[in-house]
Amino acid sequence: MSSEATTTFHSNADAATTAAAVQRVLAENKAKVIGQSPDGTQIDFQTRKTLLNWELLGRAITTPAASGSDVHLSLDVHHNRPPALLDGKKNRKAVEKLAEQIQAAID
Question: Which residues make Cβ contacts (< 8 Å) with residue 52, sequence separation at least 6?
Fold first, then answer.
């Protein structure tokens, strides 16, 4: 069973504004950016380790849409960490929380 969790949401803001909100939320969460496209619409990042969770690897992709932009988020267990039985459930919760934070930052 895969532990990767993904979600996609639509924003009424343009791609540049939405990508800036993604970057801001990642910085606020102290995520480490490990790769980024020149325009900032694709960001590879690593979440920080907490008392209860290992680091997660993530990707945020912002694409222009007809009336704004779409954001696709994915999170998965860091490849250097041991898998656990509830990783999929925890990752799903984490990706949904991140999406909510980004949506709140855009509004």
Answer: none
62: containing domain: 5-106
CATH at residue 61: 3.30.530.50
| Band of pLDDT at residue 81, cut at 50, 70 and 90 | confident
Q: Are 22 and 98 in contact (CB under 8 A)?
A: no
Are the CB atoms for 61 and 15 separated by under 8 Å? no
Bridge partners for 36 per DSSP: 43
Neighbours of 72 (CB within 10 A): 15
Tell me the pLDDT tens digit for each residue of 46-74: 999 887 778 899 999 999 998 999 999 99
